[in-house]
Structure formats: C-alpha cells, structure tokens
Amino acid sequence: MLYLVTTPIGNLEDMTARAIRVLSEVDLIAAEDTRNSRKLLTFFDIHTPMTSYHQNNRFDKGRELTEMLVAGKNIAVITDAGMPGISDPGEELVRMALEAGVEVTAVPGACACVTALTISGLPTRRFCFEAFLPTDKKERARVMEELKDETRTIVMYEAPHRLAKTLAELAEEIGSGRKVSILRELTKKHEDRFVATLGEAAAHYEAEPPKGECVIVIEGADPEEAKRAEQASWEELTIAEHVAMYEAQGISRKDAMKAVAADRGIGKREVYQALLDE
Length: 278
Prior knowledge:
- The protein is α/β, with parallel strands linked by helices.
- The protein folds into 3 domains: 109 residues, Tetrapyrrole methylase, N-terminal domain (Cobalt-precorrin-4 Transmethylase, domain 1); 108 residues, Methyltransferase, Cobalt-precorrin-4 Transmethylase, Domain 2 (2-Layer Sandwich); 41 residues, no CATH class.
- 45% of the residues lie in helices and 17% in strands.
- It has 12 helices and 10 strands.
- The strands form 2 sheets. Strands 3-2-4-1-5 form a 5-stranded parallel β-sheet, sandwiched between helices. The protein has a 5-stranded mixed β-sheet with strand order 6-7-10-8-9, sandwiched between helices.
- Strand 2, helix 2 and strand 3 form a beta-alpha-beta unit.
- The longest helix is centred in the N-terminal third of the chain and has 13 residues.
- It is globular.
C-alpha cells in the first residue's frame, strides 16, 4: 500500500492519530526533506526509516519506490507541510503506483488551501485552486488572462519574497479593485489575515515585506461584468463573423450557430439566413 500522509501546516497538534500510527507502521517513509521530517518524527517518537523523495528525483526515485511497493513493502509519502501531491511531490508516484497495480490511499489532515479559504471572508461555495503561478513568462501571462474572467473565488500560494510582485501583477492584469485576503503563518502563533484590494495589498507588502508562507484568496469576477465583457467581444461582429469566431476555437459549424443564437437571443433560422445572405 502507498499512503499519502498529510502533515501539519504549522501547528503540530494538527497531526492526526491515524497519521502517527501509519507513519509508525509502514516499512519506509519517503520524505520531501528528510531534515525537516526528522524533527516531526522525533517529536512523535516515530522511528521508521526515511528516504528522500523530492521534485528533482521524483521520476527516478518514483520508479525505485514503485518497485518496492510491487515487492510488498508499505510506503508513506510526506512533504514538509500539508498533503503530498498538492503543490508538492507525490502526483507522479501515485500514477506510477496505480499503473503498477498498487493500492493507494490518503491519510487526510490540515490543508492550507481550504484552511485559508474558509477564514478569508470570501465566498466558499465555488472556488478554483491555482497553487503557485508559473514562473515562465508566457505561461504566467496565459494563466493571468484566464483568471481575469474567473467568477469563482481564486486560491493560490506564494512565497513571501515574491508576494508583493505577484500581487502587483495580479492587480494590473485582473483589476486593482478586486478584493483579496492574504493569509500567513496558518495555524501558528502569529497567524495573520490582511484584507484589502489587490492594489492596496501590493502597496502594503511592498512597504512591509512579509515573513512566512502565504495563501492569496481573491474574489471572483462579477458574473454580470464578465458577461458584458464577453458580449463586447462580439457585438461589433456580423453574424457570420460571430460564427467564424466560434469555429476558430474548434467548434463545429452547427454548434457555432447554436452558440451565436444563444449569445444574441435570436433563432437558429435567423443565424442560418444571415449566413446565406452573407
């Protein structure tokens, strides 16, 4: 069995009894950073052998661990904090294990994404998780463009030394007036929540660089405003041009005509006639 074991995101009291038992009973613990994990295991008097499993060796070490699992070993994966596989190593090993016919299970616990969302003061019913924004400029710009019209609450992670710059980029790309909650040092003694607009938050952290890992929770775009922006993208087009816009996205002529009719609030026959006329 491969166990994905969640470790505390700050307060060690969040370690579950099941997590302690599993880490004590498995044959091997694959840890993102054995030095950090050694402190955790020592605190809970766990003496299971450890091996290093991190971002840089996840493929080679993943194959090695999978072979051990197939041979009958029980292995637990842990990261420095939180759930393995969520912005941390684990995803590839799960895939390898499942493909090899190994059973995989999770030992749940504290999660920075959900913890921050629930205390952010922003809507929680619908949200999207972006983890860390890409470092590649083109990919980063593409993601920012997608987030501009995202109507769900947006949750992402950021390192303290990059927080002010990222907030400034977000303010420029998706709107400086968008509400945001910045959560730092979650579950720790100095847990902090800063609520402002993106523009205000960028200026605040530029003047006062933060410490500790950060979670950014941003309100989604106004659905009506997003609808108006979408409408503005085609209202100057002829019906034929509107259909062509959808076809350029890989949509069939038939489905493009349906979409145009829905956008404009007209019948499909009217769209068809317009195409014939043009």
